[in-house]
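Re: the multi-chain job from yesterday

Posting the exact lines I submitted so nobody has to dig through the queue logs.
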Amino acid sequence: MDTEALTAWIREFARLIALNKAELTELDSAIGDGDHGANMDRGLQAVVAVLDAEPQETPSALFKKVGMTLISKVGGASGPLYGTAFLRMAAAAGEQADLAKVLRAGLDGVVARGKAGLGDKTMVDALSPAVDVLEAGGTMRAAADAAGRGRDATIPLIARKGRASYLGERSAGHADPGATSVTLLLTAAATTLGDAG
Amino acid sequence: MKKLINDPANVISDALLGFAAAHPELRVDHENRIVVRGDAPVRGKVGLVSGGGSGHEPLHAGFVGPGMLDAACAGEVFTSPVPDQMVAATQAVDGGAGVLHIVKNYTGDIMNFELAAEMVAADSGTQVVSVVIDDDVAVQDSLYTAGRRGVGATVLVEKIAGAAAEEGRPLDQVAEVARKVNSYARSMGLALTSCTVPAAGKPTFDLPEGEMEVGIGIHGEPGRRRVPVAPAAEIAEMLVGPILSDLDFTGGDGVIAFVNGMGATPLIELYLMFNEVSQLLAKAGIPVARSLVGPYITSLDMAGCSVTLLKADDELLRLWDAPVRTPALRKGV
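And the result, structure tokens for all chains:
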């Protein structure tokens, strides 16, 4: 997977976040503090500006730059979670980035930083099934679909992590905003990286 | 929304400009949004850094100065600051004896301070120890939530650990004092009204006239239950009861009793509440050794209050009484 295609993926992710900013904010207002859309959009606009100014030469350098920028610009819990994911992806990406391996490293980073498991109503619920599909040899489109199903499956769940957890049973009935933005990340990958596994 | 603001997007930068103008004895780094003690770094003294989302003023910037914090980082309203701010603050106050991070237990704050500590460790020889504050007894299901929230005890930790650092104690001892205060302190809060985040422009939650939320968090997180508005004497029981059943406050040197305003409640009501709280403590056989009454950890314009009790001993009382000179807390100077 070449750096140019991966850069297109990140740009498409930024575009989808901007497009869905209001929806993410609405989901986060229901069960969190209502800033997920604004925070992610601020972070990804900064990422796009950095990539415009300094095109990256390798997958590893690209993911590192994305991770550091998100950590500096997003704040809240999503900054460190997405930032850690991209930094771990940078460490796992060689010259020929194997996306299943890279995204597995990103997932491990999210789990290590956030200490969430499957079913806690977090980003993990969308990212984990997508990585499983890639590791089983599935396409990126199939992985994005799996992420979407994971996101939908968070709707009835009671949150156990983050600010949503204080709502207890009142957190059920809404999709998790983090699982929703992760689905956008995988959707962007399916669009820009095609069927590459 | 009626607020004394210009553009909702600039509330924090505009407020920091005012803070700098009002307190020339402190240094304000507007780019990093950090407030630093004027004489930092103090050679040989442990540096104390805290920070969190804005909207809780005077916490944390109002507690920067001799005897308390060395630096405070201001995030967006109710959003954790980012690691870059914490790294800049840590570097600004490192006097060679290490730096203590005082972190309220919220997912974002924990992760950003954790990353900042990792970045400092990778970049420099500065030793960083973190202490997490989690004193809110309103959170009952710690196993199924992000755990108890950091609220009123944060003010007491910053004062008492600040005094310990000022005495020249080493980093591990200052951290131990901070942990001791956290483990001996419990809090419970109540909201009469919601707050309004400037960027949102409307109240965070609906609380009908005639109802109040018991066990509220400082960002409008829901509490234990919603009940009809009651006389202050009954409200005091709703707040003090859960605190006393969570920790045995008897048998020590009494308590430091802290009645805190949430932002929109006048001081006259806080003193009225303090009377109710002290009567309940007298009935329970718990002497009030020291007191603090006022809006010190707020939730924007929320009306309501919280009660924090800290089980005191000789050491904690001596450190509590030590001189402090900050914008929001001054004594003995």
